[in-house]
Amino acid sequence: MMPNPAALVLDHMATGNIFWLVSYPKSGNTWLRILLANYFRGGAETVDINDLFDFPLAASRPLFDEHSGLEASDLTHDEIERYRPRVYEEMSRCQRGPRFLKTHDTYHTTPSGDPLFPASATAGVVYLVRNPLDVAVSFAHHSRVSFDEIIETMACEETSWFAEPQKLGAQLRQHLSSWSGHVRSWVDDSDLRLCLLRYEDMLVDPIGTFTECLAFIGESPSHSEVESAVLRSGFDRLRTLELTSGFGEKPAGVGTFFRKGRAGSWREELTKTQAGRIADNHREMMHRIGYKVEELLPVEAERQETVREEPLPGNSSEGSDGL
After folding, report:
1. Predicted confidence band at 245 (pLDDT cuts at 50, 70, 90)?
2. 57 SS3 class
3. Is residue 142 part of a domain?
4. Which of 9, 82, 127, 298, CA to CA, is 20 to 30 A from 21?
5. Is the pTM of this model over 0.90?
6. Which tens digit of pLDDT belongs to each residue from 205-243?
7. Is residue 178 part of a domain?
């Protein structure tokens, strides 16, 4: 049985300078980056949400081109993946002090057999996990697909992002696997130093949970420093900033990126059957992380199932959440 997730730290050896900020999509990774930006930059105002360049995507195509000396557009997906571990090692060698890279990739090996995220480049992993019932709702809105389609996506071990061979996007191919497979790859298969945080714990106790995160990365903040970063990263502030200044990371066609930012919205949007499918697909891993299916679903069992024509979530003005 996995220990209390809020206190889980796998303390393997770390030799590099990169902290990987890891999550399955729509699990709070952007919120974590903003919290870190507000903490490290200080000040009284919230950071510009369109200026998170200190916390880039590990799968950024421009980042790869800059540090590899190659053009990703000249390479296949597999060729790019063979180079990525070397790129991260070079970035770590050139970095004085910690560097933070966001990723949605699973922990896996490249076609050459090397770990995509090499231990030699790694200072640690902050793995942020969220209840898959809420992930499904947020991911569907973000992707502008139906809940049924996203449930299938989250159960498929072969799921990848930006994998179309003929499309040249701003991001490189990323292996997502299933929701359970993603968690398993980092918590069980990785030999990297890791701190696991739950999105729900960040909502209930943001100061305590973020303090734990900062301690893991080697910081010793005062209570007031953490409190200030948390206040400046509040959901209402982020939503206001998006409405006034836009958010460059928001997919085209999505209403708003910072949509609800809370736990439990699945109860309002998923049918009993849909929630049951997610629970059946991920029951074992949900229990390991502390999401007790028997406690989550009894309320849904009493709810009358309604048959309705489900609109594409992306066609509403609500957008996505999960930060």
Report:
1. confident
2. strand
3. no
4. 82
5. no
6. 999 999 999 999 999 999 999 999 999 888 777 777 777
7. yes
CATH number of the domain within which 97 lies? 3.40.50.300
- Measure Cα distances from 150 to 25, 259, 270, 302 in Å: 12, 18, 12, 24
Q: Rounded distance, CA 108 to CA 185, Å?
A: 7
pLDDT(4) > 60: no
**How far is residue 30's CA from residue 261's CA, in Å, rounded to a whole number?**
11
Confidence label for 11 from pLDDT (cuts 50, 70 and 90)? low
Backbone angles phi and psi of 67, in degrees to 5: -95, -15
The rounded distance, in Å, linking the Cα atoms of 11 and 311 is 45
Q: What angle do CA 42, 246, 210 make, to 5 degrees?
A: 35
Q: Which residue from 133, 168, 113, 125 is spatially nearest to 23, judged by alpha carbons?
A: 125
Q: What is the pLDDT of residues 55-64, one digit of tens each?
A: 999 999 999 9
- Residue by residue, DSSP assigns 82-116 as HHHHHHHHHHHHH-SS-EEEEE---S-B-TTS-BS
Alpha helices in 118-265 (DSSP H): 132-143, 147-155, 179-184, 199-204, 206-216, 223-232, 235-245
- Cα angle value 160/161/165 (rounded, 5°): 95
Would 322 be classed as within a structural domain?
Answer: no
**DSSP-derived secondary structure for 158-200:** T-EES--TT---SB--EE---HHHHHHIIIII--S-EEEEEHH
- Select from 27, 30, 25, 23 the least CA-distant residue to 239: 30
Please state the domain count of the chain: 1
Question: 16 lies in which domain range?
Answer: 5-133+156-254
Output the pLDDT for position 13.
55
